[in-house]
Design brief:
The strands form 9 sheets. Strands 2, 6, 7, 8, 9, 12, 13, 14 and 15 form a 9-stranded mixed β-sheet that branches. This protein is α+β, with helices and mostly antiparallel strands. The chain folds into 5 domains: about 350 residues, 3-Layer(aba) Sandwich (Kinesin); about 80 residues; about 140 residues, Tumour Suppressor Smad4; about 90 residues, no CATH class; about 80 residues, no CATH class. Helix content is about 40%, strand content about 20%. Helix 2 crosses helix 4 and helix 10 runs antiparallel to helix 11.
Length: about 800
C-alpha cells in the first residue's frame, strides 16, 4: 500500500495580474507551502495557513535560485511513475487547479526546448528505456488512447469515426472502461507526438465549433504498456501490463467568480459536478484511510456519480500508483480559489492505494472472457435466441404462439441485456486476441481516415508533406487559429492556395476548401484570393467578418500579422511568409498577437471601451441618485414647513384661548354691575329685552377657568403627594369637581365668592374645582379648597 503523492506548483504572474498590480501571497520552504490572507489582520489565526506536501515547487520567478523548472518536476514525479510502470504497476498523474493556474503547462508544456511537460517527457523516456533494455528475451508493445470528457460526455480524440458520446461500461474483470475507444499502436516517441498533436487538433476543432475552451473539459491521455518476457528454462511467456493515465482536469472555479450565465453556467455545473464528485471521493477515501483497521466498514464511495471518477476509480484508492499536481496562482485576487485548491490537495495526500503488479493479465482475462461468453450463449439459447460465433446479428427462433406470448415478452428484456453483454465481451476478447501486426494496420487505417477528415475541413496536417504538428510553414500563406487556452492556440493551420480558397460550412452547394461550423458561419462565408503572393479577402453577402477589429463588408488586402475573425468563434492570425520582412515588422504590434489581443482589439475598434462604458454607467447612476436625493430632500422640507406652520397655528390658538380665559377669570361681579357703562347705547325696547335676558343667563356662570385652576395648582398637588410619600403618610391628593345640589350642598369653605341671583329660575348648579384627600390608613375621604391646598 502507498499514499498518493501530492505536489503543489505556483506559476509566475500573468499579464492580467501584472496589470492589476497583484501581490504574491504564496511562500514556499522545503515541502511546506504557506498562503497569506490579503484581508486578514497580521498576526491573527486567519493571517497565514501552512500546508505540508510531498513536493512544493516554486516556479514563480525564473531568476530565483529555488526556481523549479519543467525538468525538475518531471524528475521528481515523472521518473518515479515511469519506474513503477516498468515494474508492472498501473500509474496515474493528474493535474488540478483553477483555470489559468498552469495545469496544461505542467502536463503538456510547450514545443520549445526545455519547456516540454510531463506527458512528452514520460513518452520520450519510455521509448528511450525500451531501446536501452531490448533483447531477445523481452518484447515491449505500447498503445495509446486520448479522450476528452465534456459535460459528462466522452469524446474520442484519435478516431474520427467515433463521433459523439461514447458509452462508459463496467466489466467485472476489467473494471470501468470506454466502449469503442480507439487504442492505437505506436512504435516511437514521434508516433505519440503526432497523435497528441492530432488529438489536440480534434479537440480544438470541436471546442471552436461548440464555442467552448479547453478549460471546459477534462483530457485523459492513456498509455498501455506491455512487457512480454520469454523464459527459456520453463518455455513459458509471462506478461506485465501497466496502464499510465495522464489527466489534465478542467478548471476549478466558482460560478460567481466567473460570472457565468446560460450555457456557460450549465457547462460549469457539469464540470463542478465531476470535480465535486472527485472531492467527495477524495474525502471519503481520506476518511477511510484515517480510521482504525478495526472500525473500517464497507463505506460507500460515490465513484459512479460522475464519468470522471468512474473512469479513475482504480487510480483513486485502487490498483494504482497515483500522483496529484495542484497548480496554484500566486496573486492575492485568487486567494479563495488558491486556498480551496490547497485544501483539496491536503485531503488527497491521505488516500492510500493498493497497487499490485499486473502480471499475466491477458491470458487469464481471455480464459475468463471465453467462459463468460459460453455462459451467455447458453442463457440466450434458453430464451430462444441463437447466436452464431463471430456474427454480430442475432436471430430469434419464432416458436412462441399466442398462448405463451406474455411469458415471452417478460423475458425479452433479459435476453436483450444478455445480447448486449455478449457483444461487449466479444469486442473485448477480439481486442485482446488481436496481433501486434493487426493493431499496427488498424492504427494506420485510422490515421488515414483522420487525415482525410482534416483535409476535408481544410486543416493542414503536414507542413509541405514532411512533419506534423505546430509549425511555421516557410512558403505558403496560411491562417493559424488563436484560442483562449494557449495549449489550443496555433493548433490549426489552413493553407491559402494559389487562386481562390473558399471558406464556408458543409451545407454549401459548392464544396468549400475550408469548412467551418458554429454560430454565424454561412454556407458560403468568404473567399481568399492568392494572386502573385497578394491575399485578398472577399466577404459574401451578410457574412460576419472582422479584420484587425473592424467589420469588413468589401474586399480587403491582408497583411501578414492581421487578425481575422470569421463568425463569432473562429479567430485567426494571417501569416504570409513571402511578404517582405520590413512590412511584417511594421504591421506587427509590439505585444504578442494572441486571442486576448484580438478580442481587446475587436472591442476597442467597435467602440466598446469597457472602462469608459463602466465610467459612463457609474456617472449615470450617480446623477440619478443625486436627482432622487434632491427630490426627497425637497419633499421632506415642504412637509417639515407644513408641520411647523400647523404647530405654530395651534400654539397661537392655545395662547389666545389661555389669555381670554385668564382675562375672564380675573373679573368680579362688580365689574359688570355698572349697567350704564355696559348698555350705553340707543337700543329699542326689543333689543334691550334680548340683551337683558342674555345678561341674566351669562351672569349665573362661574367666572373661573377650570384649565387655569388645574394648571395653576398642579404643582402644589404634585408637591403634596411627594411630601406624603416622603413622610410615609398614607394620604393621596387628586383634583375633583364638586357640584352644589339640593341633596349634596357644598361645604361653606368651598362655596364660590360670587353671589348669584337666586331668583332666576334658570340658574345652573354651581360646580367648583376641589382637592380630594384620601386617607387610606383610616379609610376616610376629605375635600379641600384650592386655597387650603396652597
Amino acid at each position: 500500500m502507498s499514499s498518493v503523492k501530492v505536489a503543489v506548483r505556483v506559476r509566475p504572474f500573468n499579464n492580467r495580474e501584472i496589470g492589476r498590480e497583484c501581490k504574491c501571497i504564496i511562500e514556499m520552504g522545503g515541502n511546506t507551502t504557506v498562503i497569506a490572507n490579503p484581508k486578514g489582520p497580521p498576526g491573527s489565526k486567519e493571517d497565514k495557513k501552512s500546508f505540508n506536501f510531498d513536493y512544493s515547487y516554486w516556479s514563480h520567478n525564473e531568476d530565483d535560485p529555488e526556481f523549479s523548472s519543467q525538468s525538475i518536476v518531471y524528475k521528481d514525479i515523472g521518473e518515479e511513475m515511469l519506474e513503477h510502470s516498468f515494474e508492472g504497476y498501473n500509474v496515474c498523474i493528474f493535474a488540478y487547479g483553477q483555470t489559468g493556474a498552469g495545469k496544461s503547462y505542467t502536463m503538456m508544456g510547450r514545443q520549445e526546448e526545455g519547456q516540454e511537460g510531463i506527458i512528452p517527457q514520460i513518452c520520450k523516456d519510455l521509448f528511450k528505456r525500451i531501446r536501452d533494455t531490448s533483447n531477445a528475451e523481452i518484447k515491449y508493445s505500447v498503445e495509446v488512447s486520448y479522450m476528452e470528457i465534456y459535460c459528462e460526455r466522452v469524446r474520442d480524440l484519435l478516431n474520427p469515426k467515433n463521433k459523439g458520446n461514447l458509452r462508459v461500461r463496467e466489466h467485472p474483470l476489467l473494471g470501468p472502461y470506454v466502449e469503442d475507444l480507439s487504442k492505437l499502436a505506436v512504435t516511437s516517441y514521434e508516433d505519440i507526438h503526432d497523435l497528441i498533436d492530432e488529438g489536440n487538433k480534434a479537440r480544438t476543432v470541436a471546442a471552436t465549433n461548440m464555442n467552448e475552451t479547453s478549460s471546459r473539459s477534462h483530457a485523459v491521455f492513456t498509455i498501455f504498456f506491455t512487457q512480454q518476457r520469454y523464459d527459456e528454462t520453463t518455455d513459458l511467456c509471462t506478461e506485465k501490463v501497466s496502464k499510465i493515465s495522464l489527466v489534465d482536469l478542467a478548471g476549478s472555479e466558482r460560478a460567481d467568480s466567473t460570472g457565468a450565465k446560460g450555457t456557460r453556467l450549465k457547462e460549469g455545473a457539469n464540470i463542478n459536478k465531476s470535480l465535486t464528485t472527485l472531492g467527495k471521493v477524495i474525502s471519503a477515501l481520506a476518511e477511510i484511510a484515517s480510521k482504525n483497521k478495526k472500525s473500517k466498514k464497507a463505506d460507500f464511495i460515490p465513484y459512479r456519480d460522475s464519468v470522471l471518477t468512474w473512469l479513475l476509480r482504480e487510480n483513486l484508492g485502487g490498483n494504482s500508483k497515483t500522483a496529484m499536481i495542484a497548480a496554484i496562482s500566486p496573486a492575492d485576487i485568487n486567494y479563495d480559489e488558491t486556498l480551496s485548491t490547497l485544501r483539496y490537495a491536503d485531503r488527497a495526500k491521505q488516500i492510500v492505494c493498493k497497487a499490485i503488479v499486473n502480471e499475466d493479465a491477458n491470458a487469464k482475462l481471455i480464459r475468463e472472457l471465453k467462459e463468460e461468453i459460453q455462459k451467455l450463449r447458453e442463457l440466450l439459447k434458453q430464451e430462444g435466441i441463437e447466436v452464431h460465433e463471430g456474427a454480430e446479428e442475432v436471430t430469434r427462433n419464432n416458436k412462441e404462439n399466442n398462448e405463451n406470448h406474455r411469458m415471452r415478452t417478460a423475458s425479452t428484456t433479459i435476453a436483450e441485456e444478455a445480447v448486449d453483454q455478449l457483444q461487449a465481451s466479444e469486442k473485448l476478447i477480439a481486442e485482446l486476441n488481436e496481433t501486434w501486426e493487426e493493431k499496427l494496420k488498424r492504427t494506420e487505417a485510422i490515421r488515414i481516415q483522420r487525415e482525410a477528415v482534416f483535409a476535408e475541413m481544410g486543416v493542414a496536417v503536414k507542413e509541405d508533406g514532411i512533419t506534423v504538428g505546430v509549425f511555421s510553414p516557410k512558403r505558403t500563406p496560411h491562417l493559424v487559429n488563436l484560442n483562449e487556452d494557449p495549449s489550443m492556440s496555433e493548433c490549426l493551420i489552413y493553407y491559402i492556395k494559389d487562386g481562390a480558397t473558399r471558406v464556408g460550412s458543409a451545407e454549401a452547394n459548392l464544396p468549400q476548401d475550408v469548412q467551418l461550423s458554429g454560430s454565424h458561419i454561412k454556407p458560403e462565408h468568404c473567399t481568399f484570393e492568392n494572386k502573385d503572393g497578394v491575399i485578398t479577402l472577399t466577404p459574401m453577402n451578410g457574412a460576419l467578418i472582422y479584420v484587425n477589429g473592424r467589420e469588413v463588408i468589401e474586399p480587403i488586402v491582408l497583411k501578414t500579422g492581421s487578425r481575422v475573425i470569421l463568425g463569432k468563434n473562429h479567430v485567426f492570425r494571417f501569416n504570409n511568409p513571402d511578404a517582405p520582412r520590413e512590412k511584417r515588422e511594421n504591421s506587427s504590434p509590439a505585444e504578442p498577437v494572441d486571442w486576448n489581443y484580438a478580442q481587446i482589439e475587436l472591442l476597442e475598434k467597435q467602440g466598446v471601451d469597457l472602462k469608459a462604458e463602466m465610467e459612463k454607467r457609474l456617472l449615470n447612476l450617480e446623477e440619478q441618485y443625486r436627482k432622487e436625493k434632491e427630490t426627497a430632500d425637497q419633499l421632506f422640507e415642504e412637509q417639515r414647513k407644513c408641520y411647523e406652520a400647523r404647530i405654530d397655528a395651534l400654539q397661537k390658538q392655545v395662547e389666545e384661548q389661555s389669555m381670554t380665559m385668564s382675562m375672564y377669570s380675573s373679573y368680579t361681579p362688580e365689574d359688570f354691575n355698572n349697567e350704564d357703562d355696559i348698555f350705553e347705547c340707543n337700543w329699542s325696547e326689543r333689543e334691550y329685552e334680548l340683551a337683558a335676558t342674555a345678561w341674566r343667563k351669562w351672569k349665573h356662570h362661574q367666572f373661573t377657568s377650570l384649565r387655569d385652576d388645574l394648571w395653576g395648582n398642579a404643582i402644589f398637588l404634585k408637591e403634596a403627594n411627594a411630601i406624603s410619600v416622603e413622610l410615609k403618610k398614607k394620604v393621596q391628593f387628586q383634583f375633583t369637581l364638586l357640584t352644589d345640589t339640593l341633596y349634596s350642598p357644598l361645604p361653606v369653605d368651598l362655596r364660590p365668592a360670587i353671589d348669584y341671583d337666586t331668583d332666576d329660575e334658570g340658574a345652573p348648579s354651581k360646580t367648583v374645582v376641589a382637592v380630594e384627600v384620601q386617607d387610606t390608613k383610616n379609610g376616610a375621604t376629605h375635600y379641600w379648597s384650592l386655597d387650603k391646598l396652597r
